[in-house]
Amino acid sequence: MAENVDIPEIHPADIMIKAMAMEITNDDIFLHGLASPLPALAMHLAKQTHAPEMVYINVTDALDPDPNKYRLCFSSADPRHAVNTLAIVELLETFDLASKGKPLGMFLGGAQIDSRANTNLTCIGSYESPKVKLPGGAATAYLTPLVKKLVLWTTNHSKRVFVEKPDFITGIGYEEGKDKEVTVITNLAVFKAGKEGLILKSVHPGVSVDDVVNNMSFAPVVKGEIKTTPTPTENEMELIKKLDPDGVRFSEFKR
Amino acid sequence: MKDKLVDAEKAVELINDGDSITFSGVSMVRAPMGFIKEIIKAGKKDLYIIDREPGMDFDILIAAKAVRKVRFAMLGFELFGLAPNFRKAAESKEIEWIEDTCGAITNAFRAGASGIPFVVVKGILGTDLVKIHEREGTWKVIKDPFNGEEILAVKAVNTDVAVIHVQKADRYGNASIEGSRFEDVYKAKGAKKLIITAEEIVDTEYFKKFPERNTIPYFYTTAVVHMPKGAYPTACPNYYPPDYDEIRRYLSMCREGKVDEYIKEWIERR
């Protein structure tokens, strides 16, 4: 418990990075897309700690970029994220891995997320007459039915994001009977998607179960022991800060 | 090999009003911004622009009223926010738009390069994008002829024009993309006309020495333009990173309603 003394000092970004990293194992191939500073750091963190054999592919088409030369930049496709890469792996090749059923994992966002972890990244309002035209789902529609691990994240745990019925289904979440693990990581909590809905697994330090539940438009499944989400160790914090000396990881929280 | 080196004003004549066009790069990397400027200067209209994950290239063309329709899987500025001019034009229905998904549009470009009419793509079924594209005539749910299961057929994309910014090219149109290629080689090979813009014009000896670096050989190429800093303010790997300050300046001017001022100043800037 000693390392948790400074809990209020820990930014939700760092808790989310650690939680994302914990979804990655040595057997996984993980890909991250654009606008993905937290996933980029989580993949580095996993590879440098508990999952050194994981295959790291990013949106710059880079394979296993060198963590010692890496510096997180505003665009996830910044060529500096490909420094000392082992190979250029075209996105189409990575997509082929998904088609072949390889153990591919992907991090994706959601402007709206429902109780099955279906996501909307397309529009608020109708597709034909949107109130807000969002940037679009990128790989969401293609990859969500194919990946073995789907890790969704949002830095805005709120009723606006967790909705009963998304305005558009861009991505598919939980699918019964399929070899696909769906995790939802927010600035407040961690969930797994299952048959009964979004199952609360842990709340971040200083967050209550009520904080989590009261900021969703549908009721998540709350049962049994709800853990506290682990925070990064001192060593892990050092790794994160070294990869992101400019604090790009906090940008998503400012909007 | 024919000499295809021309200036930008000449190359832009290859584009007709109403053409479908795709561009190199992704987000803030290797978008052919220098040539986008030429398209705006030439006053091209009613373009149908298609790409996987575009950004400022699409947004500024929309702001300049050069666009009739857009197709993309994601169109924005990542952590800097939504694409202001696209958003405004889409929400006010000034332009048509169709959202795609990376796995479909990339495979559509690859099918276009292969000369096949369509490609089957896994995933996607069950999402609301399917009905949008069935209505558009770009996708169709079909039965696998061998096992009878449902699968998505995606129509190949062959644009009228592709504009691909590369690091090095010779005057005959041999072109070398360094670092991430994204789908640019497929876009180039699938297009009816291919315009290469290059940071450097190198001697053909360069390709004889390093033939594996010739990612787009000359016989695909229609025109070559020497355009140093031709991706700026997006990045060109091995040459320059993205200029985030300039991209943010564009966005803040757009948000202040001064996009016309930005475009005017951008066009005048050498």
Would you give an account of this structure?
The complex is a heterodimer of chains A (255) and B (270). By secondary structure, chain A is an alpha/beta fold. Chain A has one domain: 3-Layer(aba) Sandwich (Glutaconate Coenzyme A-transferase). Chain A has six helices and twelve strands. In chain A, a hairpin with a 4-residue loop joins strand 6 (123-125) and strand 7. In chain A, helix 2 packs across helix 6 (234-243). Chain A is globular, with a radius of gyration of 17 Å. Chain A starts with 11 loop residues before the first helix and ends in a 12-residue tail after the last helix. Chain B is α/β, with parallel strands linked by helices. Chain B folds into two domains: 8-102 and 157-258, Glutaconate Coenzyme A-transferase (3-Layer(aba) Sandwich), CATH 3.40.1080.10; 118-155, no CATH class. Helix content of chain B is 31%, strand content 21%. Chain B has helices at 8-11, 33-41, 56-63, 84-91, 102-114, 129-136, 184-190, 205-209, 244-255, 259-268; strands spanning 20-23, 47-50, 67-72, 96-99, 118-121, 139-143, 150-155, 161-169, 175-176, 193-201, 223-226. In chain B, the strands form two sheets. In chain B, strands 1, 2, 3, 4, 8, 9, 10 and 11 form an eight-stranded mixed sheet that branches. In chain B, strands 5-7-6 form a three-stranded antiparallel sheet. The two termini of chain B are 31 Å apart.
